[in-house]
Amino acid sequence: MEYQEVVNVSYEIKVNNTWLTIVRYDSSHGFLHRHIRISLENPNEITGGEIEHGGHHAWLTIAITELLENFLTYRREFYERSDLVDKDA
After folding, report:
1. Is residue 36 within 8 Å of 23, Cβ to Cβ?
2. What pLDDT score was predicted for residue 56?
3. Is 18 contained in some domain?
4. Residue 60 and residue 73: Cα distance in Å, rounded?
5. What is the number of structural domains in the chain?
6. Is the pLDDT assigned to residue 2 strictly greater than 60?
């Protein structure tokens, strides 16, 4: 059976007219995991969040579902770490 690798599923927000990826999922190490940008000033990422449930066939669905369920939390936490006020909240 052939599987599709999840190359990148990301959540981007526009801050000061610039699009930033604040959360992304990939499977580049043979398993699905998450990268979270630290802050506006610090583009480094916190990696981890290995997704242990599901398999190759479910990774794309899992990544999209997790982003849909948690995007507001990711946004709020990014704004807090960046000392920004979210005018859309």
Report:
1. yes
2. 75
3. yes
4. 20
5. 1
6. no
Q: What mean pLDDT do residues 31-44 have?
A: 94
87, part of any domain: no
Alpha-carbon dihedral angle through residues 66, 70, 74, 75, given to the nearest 10 degrees = 130
Encoded amino acid at 18, one letter: T
Residues 6+ apart with CB under 8 A from 52: none
pTM of the model: 0.83
Phi, psi angles (nearest 5°) of residue 61: -65, -40
Find the domain containing 18 and state its range.
9-81
CA distance 60 to 11: 14
In a domain, 86, yes or no: no
Name the phi and psi angles at 25, rounded to 5.
-115, 140
The DSSP line for 22-45 is: EEEEE-TTSS-EEEEE--SS---E
